[in-house]
Specification:
Layout (H helix, E strand, L loop, with lengths): L14 H16 L1 H13 L3 E7 L10 E4 L4 E4 L5 E4 L5 E8 L6 E7 L4 E3 L2 E2 H4 L9 H16 L4 E5 H5 L6 H5 L5 E6 L2 E7 L7 E5 L2 E2 L22 E5 L13 E6 L10 E11 L6 E12 L5 E21 L2 E4 L5 E4 L2 E25 L2 E24 L4 E2 L7 E5 L2 E26 L2 E26 L5 E4 L8 E2 L1 H4 L8 E30 L2 E25 L14 E8 L2 E7 L1 H15 L7 H5 L3 E17 L3 E22 L4 E23 L4 E12 L3 H4 L3 E4 L8 E5 L7 E14 L3 E25 L2 E26 L10 E20 L3 E5 L6 E10 L3 E10 L2 E4 L9 E3 L2 E11 L4 E8 L6 E5 L5 E6 L3 E9 L1
Parallel strand pairs: 1-7, 1-8, 12-15, 38-41
Antiparallel strand pairs: 1-4, 2-3, 2-5, 5-6, 9-14, 10-11, 12-13, 14-15, 16-17, 16-52, 17-18, 18-21, 18-51, 19-20, 21-22, 22-25, 23-24, 24-27, 25-26, 26-29, 27-28, 29-30, 30-33, 31-32, 33-34, 34-35, 35-36, 36-39, 37-38, 39-40, 40-41, 41-42, 42-43, 42-44, 44-45, 45-48, 46-47, 47-50, 48-49, 49-52, ...
Length: 950
């Protein structure tokens, strides 16, 4: 069910949105006197030098440094290789272009009075092709990335699509794991969420071509990048420090997915990529394919269009064991750590990804540009899960239990078959333009983005044991493979020991829509007799969130399958690591059963009212932002000073269910707050290739939507003397704020290399964590879990990066090279009061002490090979306030990958990918490694394919 808060319906631009627009207008209006003076000065000087820098093939060269030596003016090219130098006195000048991978280029240009002078610069115009240092498409991509990184005002990393293609990274999350300071969370072996510089994933904002995209999950603001295939991007921009012109909801930084433009390279281009793979834990039927087509057309090639599509399918089997460590009572009624339930999960999952992108651009002249862009991606998991559960908690614990071993009489076990389909979809559409008016630059964008997650089908068939065997576990030896008595007695292998228990039918949907509009105005001027730029802008973001779940359960005899348990089994054995689970369910037979029972189970009589209401919520969040900044250019320094103001209006509603009356009421909540974000960023060039940066910034992380909504979810039976469990929202929750300091030093060397070091410190205020405490609810004792604010905390760290091809070596040895990076972080929060066994300090989730990437490569004009190793140390996933022994950690994990490709012809390339060569596993544990809560194996993956370009 969906519950709407009062006044939630939007009709055009609501009064609230109008008020927000007035805030933006007022902020810009406050700068009107400055704007008037600056615009007046700008209008008096209309001499502008503009143009495009490209290579001999017509491909744009982004990040090129363009210098007018006679005046000391300098700028850099944008993603399409375009540059603009306003306020140029009329006359003749030498234009120098400095671009890593090429010799410095120069050209004489005459700037005419009162008009815009266009000077396109092509490599072949200024140097012989034989002098070019860059070799091959991979180096082209690396050059573009390093040059953008070098000339950027803020601290950033750029990853080109060519570089992504040289690693076996099928989605955006996995491509990002190669970047300094980024750690990846995984699901069934594939990357999904990313952590930047030891911060929670929600501290990093994700944009597509500058358009903020919402997540798909109802439980987090973080965006699951595993749903986005790597083929959709031209490059990845990782901004580790932000500017006032960027959204402030990026404490860790922001990641911008840049899609392709037809103007990246002139003329018609078509790229095809296809291949198949062998999955050690799945099938040999995996495949993927993609196509990209672009063209510029029109009398002056002023129009550009690009479209791309990609498809990938993997069939994967995953071994999974989960042990639910918790406090249990021993025979003397003392609390000890133990395992009430163990689950052995045998997954068979078909995962499909499909994406489409497109863009249409119109550039009538060098001073005006218009665009319409769209990106859509969908990931579908069709998952079959065979599960064996050992229910120690249904038995009676015996004397002699320890925290590593225990015995029980009259326990139970159960077998379950689950079929689950989940779809994650992301959509981003934007339209806008950019205009050079006199010496000013005006740009504007309107956009719509959607993140949607649906479970159209999630059905479970459960058989529970009629036998009540004695059960025991012993983790004191090999804790990853504990000694379990059930696998000795093998009572779970006898079909006669099972009886029908229940059929569960659930579905769920979460939709997050964001409509946004922004406008920016850049005005060149002079300050302190130095070239400078004023920039002002505003942005409106309106986001609507709906989350709805329906749950049905049928335990009636009429729901019992016509076929018995034994008849529903196939002849395919189910083994999980070294444990024999018996035979798998026959998927076709069970699906037939689900098809016959679905409409019956979904009848009102079987609806689980509490489950179907207390997880639902709606929310609306509107953000109104305005900023002003100035950029002053000194001889070797660029100084940015600015201020951003963001006002947030939030409304939320959720049903509150009454267990006694079996009725519910709607609880609503609204609040507004305004935050100010000052910014000071300094870039200093000690030389053309030695660049230092220092930044003082401020960021915000707004609470999860469900955390701010006044919801209450109850579990457990209302029995006298029993303690019920409650999960609640917290309308009083504050956003997390952070004051950030960053400093870095980078040295770039020819032909394409970099060595860099950086330090960062984030001073956190009101960090959000979950607290479980004992209280009362409806007159009963209750353990209440809800989010709270920690007074303060910090994240600090250092990072190093080194990349070089050893071209100084003789002959064929010059093809060898190394890319390596290392990040160390430390983070903690101060709790509002001391927690049991931990004091007032606690670690932050998602923070690994170390993240390491190392790759050795060999590259020639036609052949490329890379051996890549990535490693992330242990990190906290779930914080348990009541008992640090139950904090859940992911064990650190390493992965070794290999790729190689060869240019068969000028247009055809074949390649090989090998992934997870050391067969590393995913492991979680409670407090210490000897208490594993989850162990997962997904095996090795091998892929062969071909690329065709023409």
């Amino acid at each position: 069910m969906i519950i709407k808060p009062v006044g939630a319906e939007r009709a055009g631009l609501s009064l609230k949105a109008s008020a927000g627009a007035l805030i933006i207008a007022a902020a810009l209006g406050a700068a009107a006197p400055v704007l008037a003076d600056v615009v007046g000065d700008a209008a008096a000087v209309q001499n502008t030098l503009t143009g495009r820098v490209s290579d001999a093939s017509g491909a744009s060269l982004p990040g090129a440094r363009v210098v007018i030596r006679e005046l000391g003016f300098a700028t850099s090219t944008d993603r399409q290789g375009r540059y603009i130098l306003p306020s140029m006195p009329a006359g003749q000048y030498t234009v120098e272009v400095d671009y890593l991978g090429y010799p410095t280029m120069s050209r004489q240009v005459t700037v005419a009075a009162g008009v815009a002078t266009v000077a396109d610069i092509t490599v072949s115009d200024v140097t012989e092709v034989a002098e070019i240092v860059v070799v091959g498409s991979l180096s082209d991509g690396v050059a573009r990335a390093l040059n953008q990184q070098r000339t950027a005002d803020n601290t950033s990393n750029v990853v080109s699509s060519d570089s992504i293609g040289r690693f076996p990274d099928s989605n955006i999350a996995e491509a990002l794991q190669r970047v300094p300071g980024i750690g990846v969370e995984r699901d069934q072996g594939e990357g999904n969420f990313v952590s930047l510089r030891g911060s929670p994933a929600a501290f990093t904002s994700i944009t597509v071509d500058g358009v903020s995209i919402p997540g798909t999950s109802p439980d987090t603001r973080a965006v699951d990048l595993g749903a986005l295939p790597s083929e959709v991007v031209s490059s990845l921009e990782i901004n580790k420090t932000l500017l006032p012109s960027q959204d402030a909801d990026s404490i860790a930084g922001s990641i911008n997915l840049v899609t392709r433009s037809a103007f990246d390279s002139r003329g018609r281009n078509i790229r095809l990529n296809a291949g198949g793979s062998y999955n050690e834990m799945g099938s040999t039927n995996d495949r993927r394919a993609s196509v990209v087509a672009s063209d510029t057309f029109g009398p002056d090639r002023q129009f550009g269009a690009v479209v791309s599509a990609s498809y990938a399918k993997t069939d994967r089997r995953v071994d999974n064991i989960e042990s639910a460590w918790d406090l249990i009572e021993d025979a003397d009624e003392n609390d000890i750590l133990g395992v009430p339930v163990q689950e052995f999960k045998d997954y068979d999952t078909r995962r499909e990804r499909l994406s489409l992108t497109g863009a249409l651009e119109y550039r009538p002249d060098a001073l005006n540009r218009y665009f319409v862009r769209g990106t859509w991606a969908r990931r579908t998991d069709d998952e079959f899960r065979n599960l064996l559960a050992i229910l120690y908690e249904d038995g009676t614990i015996q004397p002699g239990a320890t925290e590593q071993s225990a015995s029980f009489t009259a326990g139970r076990f159960a077998r379950e078959f689950r079929h689950r389909v989940v779809r994650d979809e992301n959509l981003a559409i934007s339209a806008g333009g950019e205009h050079d008016i006199n010496t000013m630059t005006l740009d504007y964008t309107v956009s719509f983005a959607r993140g949607e997650q649906t479970y159209p089908n999630r059905q479970q068939l459960l058989f529970r044991s009629t036998a009540r065997p004695d059960l025991s576990y012993d983790f004191s030896g090999d804790f990853d493979n504990p000694n379990l008595s059930l696998f000795t007695s093998q009572e779970h292998l006898n079909p006669a020991n099972y009886a029908f228990r229940e059929h569960v039918n659930r579905w769920q949907s979460t939709t997050q829509d964001e409509t946004a509009a922004e406008i920016n105005l850049s005005i060149p001027t002079t300050l302190f007799n130095q070239p400078a730029e004023w920039k002002f802008g505003g942005r409106l973001r309106q986001r609507d969130i709906e989350s709805d779940e329906e749950s049905f359960r049928n335990r009636d005899a009429s729901a019992r399958p016509a076929l018995g348990f034994a008849d529903l089994l196939s002849d395919t054995p189910s083994r999980n690591f070294d444990y024999d689970l018996g035979f798998k369910y026959d998927a076709d037979l069970v699906l037939d059963y689900f098809g016959s029972q679905g409409p019956l189970t979904a009848a009102p009589a079987y609806r689980r009212i509490a489950n179907s209401t207390t997880t639902d919520y709606t929310a609306q969040e509107d953000i109104y932002a305005a900023y002003g900044m100035t950029r002053i250019q000194f001889d070797r320094a660029n100084l940015i000073l600015g201020l951003r103001v963001e006002r947030t209006d939030f409304e939320g509603a959720a049903p509150v269910f009454n267990e006694d009356t079996e009725d519910f009421t709607v609880s609503s909540f609204s609040r507004s707050y305004t935050e100010v974000f000052p910014n000071a960023t300094l870039r200093y060039a000690f030389s053309d290739n030695l660049v230092g940066r220092v930044a003082l910034t401020r960021g915000i992380a707004r609470p999860r939507y469900r955390d701010n909504v006044p919801r209450i979810s109850e579990s457990g039976d209302r029995t006298a003397g029993e303690v019920i469990d409650l999960t609640a929202g917290n309308p009083d929750l504050k956003p997390t704020l952070s004051n950030n300091f960053d400093a870095s030093l980078e040295y770039y060397y020819e032909p394409l290399g970099v060595i860099s070091a950086g330090v960062f410190y984030k001073d956190l205020e009101d960090y959000v964590f979950e607290l479980t405490s004992r209280g009362t609810y409806a007159g009963l004792a209750a353990d209440i879990t809800r989010p709270e604010n920690a007074p303060d905390g910090f994240i600090r760290g250092v990072e190093f990066n080194y990349q070089q091809q050893f071209t100084f070596l003789p002959g064929w040895l010059s093809g060898f090279g190394v890319a390596a990076n290392y990040t160390w972080t430390d983070a903690e929060m101060t709790l509002p009061f001391a927690g049991p066994g931990r004091g007032t300090k606690a670690a932050l989730p998602n923070q690994s002490d170390t993240t390491v990437n190392l790759s050795a490569f060999y590259e020639t004009a036609r052949f490329n090979a890379r051996l890549a190793w990535t490693d992330r140390s242990d990190f906290l996933q779930e914080f348990n306030y009541g008992d640090p022994r139950l904090d859940i950690y992911w064990e650190g994990r390493s992965q070794l990958d290999f790729t190689a490709d060869f240019d068969v012809t000028e247009h055809v390339n074949v390649y090989l990918e090998a992934k997870n060569l050391t067969d590393s596993e995913g492991v979680r544990y409670a407090g210490v490694r000897s208490r594993p809560t989850e162990r997962e194996r997904f095996g090795r993956l091998f892929f062969v394919g071909a690329r065709v370009n023409f």
